[in-house]
Amino acid sequence: MKILATAIVSILFCVAATADDTKMSDLANNIIFQKNCAKCHGKTGGGRHFAGPSLRSGKAADAPPDELRAIITNGKGRMPKFAGKLDAGDINRLVEQIKAAKK
To answer: Domains in the chain, please, with CATH?
Structure first.
């Protein structure tokens, strides 16, 4: 019984340790992000020099979800609008991943 408990605790620690890596890779594994966003924001959302800002920064991750949805939907500055290109579910998933990707 003690061995089983030790094994379970070990598994939980491994899952917790990889949670941060998973957050950062969610954007990298999202086909919608790769097709529509990675060109400017980088493959992992880290931003690109002279292009889109980091989506893993505190500024992006700390923005209210409604503000992020509005920016993705309507565009802002040089960012194009994605209304009509992405459905509400895709936009919501991107917002969730941006919020989770904070460094």
So the answer is: 24-100 (1.10.760.10)
